[in-house]
Amino acid sequence: MSHNNRAGERGTRWETTVVTYLQDNGLPGAERRRLRGKRDAGDLTGVPGWVIGCKDEQRIDLAGYMDELAGQAVNSGREEWAAEVVKRRRRPVGDAYVVMPLWQFTMLLKEGL
After folding, report:
1. What is the pLDDT of residue 1?
2. Which of 34, 55, 75, 91 has its CA 20 to 30 A from that of 40?
3. What's the farthest any 2 CA atoms get from each other in the chain?
4. How far apart are CA 72 and CA 110, in angstroms?
5. 95 vs 19, 39, 109, CA distance in Å?
6. 66 burial class (0-12, 13-18, 19+ CB within 10 angstroms)?
7. What confidence tens digit (pLDDT) does each residue in 46-71 have?
8. What's the rounded mean pLDDT across residues 34-48?
9. Which residues contact 90 (CB under 8 A, 6 or more apart)?
């Protein structure tokens, strides 16, 4: 098995874990999105208004994640909010980091969300 396949399998497991967590916590429509190649629109679907990515990597690259997420939000064509769920090593899924740009967090606060 190549390194790339292991990384993909780890990413798929993390996406599935995040979906299960969201479903178990009141978001029953959350599901994994099929890959769309260069027109990627995030890893999860079924959470209206959101583009959600999931990352399970040894080294956290917030800037890279935010750049990728911005492109996915454009590709989605309709999503208003975007966040990346980043696995926290040796911690339960509920302790994962949810990362978004400050301007977006400010808008959420202003809207009382």
Report:
1. 47
2. 91
3. 48
4. 24
5. 14, 30, 21
6. middle
7. 999 999 999 999 999 999 999 999 99
8. 83
9. none
Angle at 22 between CA 26 and CA 12, to 5 degrees: 160
What residue has token string 């202003």? 110
Which residue carries 């993390």 as its tokens? Answer: 14
Measured CA to CA, the distance from residue 91 to residue 101 in angstroms comes to 24
Q: 40 is written with which tokens?
A: 């990627």
Tell me the two tokens of residue 20. Answer: 């299960």
Counting every residue written for the chain, the total comes to 113
What's the Rg (C-alpha) of the chain?
14
Is this prediction's pTM over 0.85?
A: yes
6 falls in which pLDDT band (50, 70, 90)? Answer: confident
Tokens 């301007």 — which residue? 103
